[in-house]
Amino acid sequence: MPPARPLEFRQRVIELARSSDRPVGQVAKGLGISESCLRNRLEVPIDEGAEGVTTAERKDLVELRRKTRQFELENEVLRKAAAYFARENVLPK
What we know:
Blueprint lengths: L6 H13 L4 H8 L3 H9 L11 H36 L3
Helix pairs in contact: 2-3
């Protein structure tokens, strides 16, 4: 594993990658770091004030989407049950 770079270097690399119109892979290669390392670094600062969804917000979104799917499933079951019982009341016995 290569030695850790100074904080100033890492911050400058992130600024350069964000401001550049070159692909992340080319920026990383030009700076002598791996593409995966740079991609990981580009994702981290969201919690530190950059624009985007923070980790906590993302966790909340995942939970809300899961609950929404559950409610939609329950609603579909209730709709089918209501249609079944409504049909049962209409048909002669």
